[in-house]
Amino acid sequence: MKPTIALVGRPNVGKSTLFNRLTRSRDALVADQPGLTRDRHYGHGRVGSKPYLVVDTGGFEPVVDEGILFEMAKQTLQAVDEADAIVFLVDGRTGITPQDKIIANRLRQAKQPVFLAVNKAEGVSHAMATAEFHELALGEPYAISASHGDGVREMVEMVLEFF
Ligand code: GDP
Ligand code: MG
């Protein structure tokens, strides 16, 4: 069976950039504008002989309210429920935000394995990039650069080892 990996995280952490790299497609909309990717996007990828499906979620807005924010949260929660593994992206340059903590709390209850990926870590040592993110209590953080590709293949191999 092809495992489905959901990319989750607050807007602007690099989910769509990672999606593009994992699927080598331009399907996902990458933009500086937070929250631009509103729908779930599915793409296929493969590492060695192992295929996988990736879902790019449209920003996790934990404050469930109404209108578009509610739709985004609903879609993301649905993607999380349907996934076999979750990659939770955070931004290594801005550090932990209150929104990251809310998402981490929700993901700690997930039944699937959750991988914490510290993005935008190009040019920084793994130890430096990940240090503060241990606090999120989601296991060993993994430093990557979605735009440069650093650590991405290794991370996916680690995720796929579970399947
Ligand atoms: P999303 O909202 O989580 O889907 O984030 P995007 O993929 O749209 O990326 C938001 C911004 O972060 C864009 O300007 C990207 O170019 C930038 N970005 C994404 N990945 C990296 C990375 O690994 N390093 C750096 N420096 N910038 C990145
Ligand atoms: Mg996006």
Walkthrough of the structure:
With 163 residues, the chain is of the alpha/beta class. The protein has a single domain, classed as P-loop containing nucleotide triphosphate hydrolases (Rossmann fold, 3-Layer(aba) Sandwich). It contains 5 helices and 6 strands. It has a 6-stranded mixed β-sheet, sandwiched between helices. The relative contact order is 0.20. The mean pLDDT is 85. The chain binds guanosine-5'-diphosphate and magnesium ion (MG). Residues 3-163 form the EngA-type G domain. GTP 1 binds at residues 9-16, 56-60, 119-122. Belongs to the TRAFAC class TrmE-Era-EngA-EngB-Septin-like GTPase superfamily. EngA (Der) GTPase family. This is GTPase Der. It comes from Vogesella amnigena.
Q: Any idea what the shape is?
A: globular
Q: Ligands bound here?
A: guanosine-5'-diphosphate, magnesium ion
Q: Outline the low-pLDDT stretches.
A: none
Count of spatially separate domains: 1
The CATH topology turns out to be: Rossmann fold
CATH class: Alpha Beta
List the main descriptive attributes of the protein structure presented here:
single chain; 163 residues; alpha/beta; Rossmann fold; six-stranded mixed beta sheet; 5 helices; 6 strands; globular; binds guanosine-5'-diphosphate; binds magnesium ion
Outline:
GTPase that plays an essential role in the late steps of ribosome biogenesis. This protein has 163 residues and is α/β, with parallel strands linked by helices.
Topology:
Blueprint: E1 4-8, H1 15-23, E2 41-47, E3 50-56, H2 67-82, E4 85-91, H3 98-107, E5 114-119, H4 126-130, E6 142-143, H5 152-160
Parallel strand pairs: 1-3, 1-4, 4-5, 5-6
Antiparallel strand pairs: 2-3
Bound molecules: guanosine-5'-diphosphate (GDP) and magnesium ion.
The site of magnesium ion has 3 residues, from helix 1.
Subunit structure: Associates with the 50S ribosomal subunit.
Function: GTPase that plays an essential role in the late steps of ribosome biogenesis.
Protein name: GTPase Der
